[in-house]
Amino acid sequence: MATVFTRTSALGTFALRTVDPAGDAPLLHAWLTHPKSVFWMMGGAGRAEVEAEFARVAASPGHAAYLGLHDGRPAFLAERYDPAAELGHVYAAEPGDAGMHFLVAPSARPVHGFTSAVLATVLDMIFADPGVRRVVAEPDVRNTAVHRRNAEMGFTIEDTVELPGKSAYLSVCTRAAYAAARAKEAVR
């Protein structure tokens, strides 16, 4: 699969390529069924179910999954989706909205700043599309670590919404808020 986006930071090179549902299923199954990935709600999924889910994503207009690489090695997962189609029943979509999910692969040796670098990579990829005005996310209300990372990147919590399997904070990051957050980070 070809790389669709690359970003270099102090932590190395981050790249995204489209998920190959069959080829990536063993790796994604290991990540998604790990206890640290509880908020993806696939803990009890079999490998075939993981493959089927990513095949569904690949076939769905307005939805795409990406395998994230760090210095050439698989390290994270990202999705971009049409929030009007996925969340339109719980919020008023606006033109230029793009939805996002991300997962950092479970690691025995976490690297300080790695999750923030992954999230910046995903947001840079999405905002590279000039038609995107806002990124929408809906993390589980219990996922405090993601709420902190999202806030660092300029997300604000707009509402609490009920979604299948979770109560979620509907969160939005405008292009301007993301640019301001990144500028603030560059000064540190």
Describe this structure in words.
The structure is a single chain. It is built from 6 helices and 8 strands, in the order E-E-H-H-E-E-H-E-H-E-H-E-E-H. With 188 residues, the chain is an alpha+beta fold. The chain has an 8-stranded mixed beta sheet with strand order 1-2-3-4-5-6-8-7, sandwiched between helices. Strand 1 and strand 2 form a beta hairpin. Helix 1 packs across helix 2 (47-59). The longest helix is centred in the middle third of the chain and has 14 residues, at 114-127. The radius of gyration is 16 Å and the shape is globular. The N and C termini lie far apart (36 Å). The relative contact order is 0.14. The model has no long low-confidence stretch (mean pLDDT 95).
